[in-house]
Design a protein that fits this description.
By secondary structure, the chain is α/β, with parallel strands linked by helices. It has 5 helices and 5 strands; from the N terminus they run αββααβαββα. A 5-stranded mixed beta sheet has the order 2-1-3-4-5.
């Protein structure tokens, strides 16, 4: 999670909402990303999507079945869907997202038995550090 936090800080440096993500396979980071929606002018440029793309390229497969994804903030529905599509079996996140979280706060897409893939979820990891990135960022905008 500490590496994901470093990714989130890169987003903040670009005046992007500070969300960071890393994907780990066999103890090594194979994908990393941070929020770049404004910079890229692309609604899909979420940290998780960028990290999943990088991990798929690195591993040479769209299936990330032996990976864990670490995200500073609970994934939105789009990113939760991407996690399901990539077959990532484990999500670890820091801060909950009551307005957009799709891993238990608003909905839980990752553990809906109607899908053909279910992901284990661990939440609240370095939660205070992850939440502080967001509160500090939004405080500077006011």
């Amino acid at each position: 999670m500490k590496i994901a936090i470093e990714q989130a800080k890169k987003a903040a440096e670009k005046r992007e909402v500070p969300i960071g993500c890393v994907i780990v396979h066999d103890g090594a980071v194979v994908g990393a990303g941070y929020n770049l929606r404004n910079t890229a002018g692309n609604a899909l440029a979420h940290a998780e999507i960028i990290a999943i793309n990088e991990a798929c390229e690195h591993l040479g497969d769209w299936r990330l079945e032996d990976c864990t994804i670490y995200v500073t903030v609970e994934p939105c529905p789009m990113c939760a869907g991407a996690i399901l599509q990539a077959r990532i079996p484990r999500l670890v996140f820091g801060a909950a997202s009551p307005k957009a979280g799709a891993a238990g706060s608003l909905v839980n897409l990752l553990q809906d038995p109607r899908y053909n893939h279910i992901a284990e979820i661990a939440s609240g990891v370095l939660e205070d550090d992850c939440a502080k990135l967001l509160t500090d960022f939004f405080a500077t905008l006011r």
